[in-house]
Specification:
276 residues, mainly alpha, two-stranded antiparallel ribbon, 8 helices, binds NADP nicotinamide-adenine-dinucleotide phosphate, lipid metabolism, 3-oxo-5_a-steroid_4-DH_C, EC 1.3.1.22, lipid biosynthesis, transmembrane
């Protein structure tokens, strides 16, 4: 009798665990599907309607907050959700998983903490950041941090594959290269902003090739991340970043041409050197 009830309890525990694991997998798969499904409508709507912050700020989008605070809040899930989820993954103590997660955390440490501090110190904001846009970005970052952190810490299964370090270092080189371009470009832009007197034509380096080298660098970073993680979640993030930043870069490019007219160098492309 005793043995029987013991095995019933074990049976219940196992089915509960299996059910939880299945729910967990479903959550992951549906989230991944959502990441792919939100890309195309984002791309299409941003072609017609620019997110109303910075150069494309316009009234009618509800209350605004200061841009550094907006960046801090909306990008923060990438840090806190990742740190919250990572320990419960089956690979959480695998050094390879920790190493793989760190470029993502490094990027978001910069974007969430350092970048807002730079904006805050360097300049008076020209316009507020709409709360509505920040809330959408916050939602995206929740979804994306969940997918990236859960993939690396739990669902990735080929840590012992022989190609791990090849993919990791290959992707890391690309990632670091992109991050350097992104940070360099943002520093140039913030330097111009600090000079005061409104928007100027940025010059030198990558700015001679494209209007938005900061977005180009960002896209290169996530190409590196897709290679490093070798995953649908990494690739989905790359596609979404392009869906978001390519239309905005095109809009910025048109904006520069309209504002500076013949003073704006005609040879520049919007975001991908020599291409678009
Ligand atoms: N992963 C993603 O999907 C994603 C999405 C969005 C942004 N990001 C990244 O976040 C960072 C900021 O993005 P953003 O859209 O705010 O970039 P941005 O429009 O280029 O602005 C960057 C900063 O430079 C200032 N600035 C821009 N052009 C200027 C000019 N010609 N003269 C003087 N000042 C100028 C802006 O001031 P104002 O604010 O007054 O315009 C702002 O403070 C970028 O590194 C971007 O790659 C990533």
């Amino acid at each position: 009798m005793h043995h029987h009830s013991q095995s019933v309890i074990t049976f219940h525990q196992t089915t509960t665990q299996t059910t939880m694991a299945l729910l967990d997998q479903n959550l992951f798969h549906y989230s991944l599907l959502s990441l792919y499904l939100i890309g195309p409508p984002t791309f299409i709507s941003l072609k017609f309607l620019q997110a109303p912050y910075g150069k494309h700020h316009r009234p009618g989008w509800g209350p605004t907050i200061s841009p550094p605070l907006a960046w801090l809040l909306m990008e923060s899930p990438a840090l806190w959700l990742t740190l919250l989820l990572f320990p419960s993954g089956q690979h959480s103590t695998n050094p390879k998983a920790l190493i793989l997660m760190s470029p993502y955390l490094l990027h978001y440490f910069h974007r969430t903490i350092i970048y807002p501090l730079r904006i805050y110190r360097n300049s008076k904001p020209t316009s507020g950041f709409p709360v509505s846009v920040a809330v959408m970005a916050f939602g995206f970052n929740l979804l994306n941090a969940y997918l990236q952190a859960r993939w690396v810490s739990h669902y990735k299964s080929d840590y012992d594959g022989g190609l791990f370090w090849w993919k990791f270092f290959g992707g890391l080189v690309v990632f670091v290269w992109g991050m350097r371009i992104n940070m360099w470009a943002d520093r140039v832009l913030l330097g111009l902003k600090r000079e005061g007197g409104g928007y100027k034509v940025p010059r030198g380096g990558w700015f001679e090739l494209v209007s938005c080298p900061n977005y180009f660098g960002e896209i290169v970073e996530w190409i590196g991340w897709a290679l490093m993680t070798w995953s649908w979640s990494g690739f989905g993030f790359l596609l979404y970043t392009c869906a978001n930043l390519v239309p905005r870069a095109r809009a910025n490019h048109r904006w520069y041409l309209e504002k500076f007219k013949e003073d704006y160098p005609r040879s520049r492309r919007a975001v991908i050197p020599f291409l678009c």
